[in-house]
Amino acid sequence: MKRVSLLFTLLLALMLPATVSAQITDEVLSRRPQTTAPVAGDAIQEGNWMIGGSIAELALNFKSENYGFGINPRAGYFISDNAAIGAEVQLAFETYDGGEEWRYGVTPFVRYYFPEGAAPTHRWFGEALLGIGGSSVEDSEGDAIVSRVYGVRAGYAHFVAEHVALEATLGYIRSNADISVGVTEAGLAAGLGFQIYLPARRNQ
C-alpha cells in the first residue's frame, strides 16, 4: 500500500509542472497580438469599400541611379466579388546626384484578387493604374507640367484583423512627367502598406 501511495505521489509530482506549464503557455498565447484573421473572403465582397495605401515605397530607376520613397493614399469600391476600382494619390520624394525632386499625381486603378491560391487569411492580387502626374523639377522650357503615369502591380494581402490587411507590392511604373518631352522614365517599385476594408450594409 505504501508503494502504491508513493507511486501515486511521484506521478502527481511529475504531472503538476506540466499542467502549470500548459496553463502558462495558454495564457501567454492568449495575450499575443493578433497576427492573422480568416476573413479574406468577407472583406472583398461586392459593395465593400477599401481605404488605405502604401506607407513606404523604395524605388529603383532603370535609367539612372536614383532612389526615392513615397506614400500613396487610396480608396476603392468593389464592383463585384474580388474586383475593385478606385483612385490613388501619389506623393513621392526622390534624391539623386546634384539635387532632389518631389513627385505628385492621381491615378485611377483596377484591382483583382485571384481565387487561385486563395486562403481564408490571405489573397494574391494584381492591379493596373493609369493617371496623370507631375514633378517639382523643370529642366527646360519644353517640360510637361503633367504627363501620363501608368503601370501594373502584383501584390499579397495578409489579413491581420477583421477589416485590416497588410500588403506588399511589386510593380512597373512608367511616366514622363516634368521631364523633356519625348523622354520617359520607367522603373520597378516595391511597396509596403495596409488596407482597411469597410463592409457594405448588406454584407454586415
UniProtKB/TrEMBL annotation:
InterPro entries: OMP/PagP_B-barrel (IPR011250). Residues 1-22 form the signal peptide. Keywords: Signal. This is Outer membrane protein beta-barrel domain-containing protein.
